[in-house]
Design a protein that fits this description.
alpha/beta, about 190 residues, about 20% strand, single chain, 6-stranded mixed beta sheet, 6 strands, globular
Length: about 190
């Protein structure tokens, strides 16, 4: 009997792709402003070995860095400038944004996709989204988490997306201070 290999070190960092809804419905009730605060709460918890990317979407997704990047001062400045200049407009389609997010998956490292949205999606159908989740989450080391933002939220869609990929969903209303919950949310992400 041998002891086998040592357990995997926990300090290797994780990959995070933040998928932010900037469609027209996000201007209502200050959802985009709440999303900015929430995503900043997450970003402030990243470690130096973590890597991240920001994807914004309405009908088409757009990457900020076009790669996973560490939270260096330069990357954080670019991230903050991009976040500050976002405007909500257009229709909504979550599926293309998720397809782009899954391109950052690496079977060697955990990928955590965090969607911040109200879940009001005019272009995608739940079945095609669920099929996408099943395809990628079973073959790659990736999980999707959803943060429903605002009082008008498609909870059933966001819950289903998260559950199908082994993640979970949380919901914040206007006036909620997500800073207090971000650390707990991140701890759950890492388990």
């Amino acid at each position: 009997i041998t002891s086998g290999e040592d357990g995997e070190k926990l300090d290797k960092g994780s990959d995070y792709v933040f998928v932010l809804d900037i469609s027209g419905s996000m201007i209502n009730e200050g959802k985009l402003a709440q999303s900015r605060k929430t995503i900043n709460s997450f970003i402030n918890l990243l470690g130096e070995k973590d890597r991240f990317e920001l994807i914004t979407f309405n009908t088409m997704p757009e990457s900020l860095f076009n790669k996973l990047t560490t939270p260096s001062p330069e990357a954080m400045m670019k991230f903050q400038n991009a976040l500050k200049n976002l405007q909500a407009r257009g229709g909504t389609s979550i599926e293309p944004a998720l397809n782009l997010a899954y391109k950052y998956a690496n079977p060697e490292k955990n990928l955590n996709i965090i969607i911040l949205s109200d879940g009001i999606d005019q272009a995608s159908y739940p079945k095609s989204l669920i099929d996408l989740m099943k395809t990628y989450s079973s073959s790659l080391n990736a999980r999707t988490f959803c943060v429903g933002v605002g009082n008008e939220v498609n909870k059933s869609l966001l819950n289903r997306i998260a559950q199908e990929s082994g993640g979970f969903a949380a919901f914040i209303s206007n006036g909620d201070d997500f800073n207090n919950h971000a650390e707990l949310f991140f701890k759950k992400l890492m388990k």
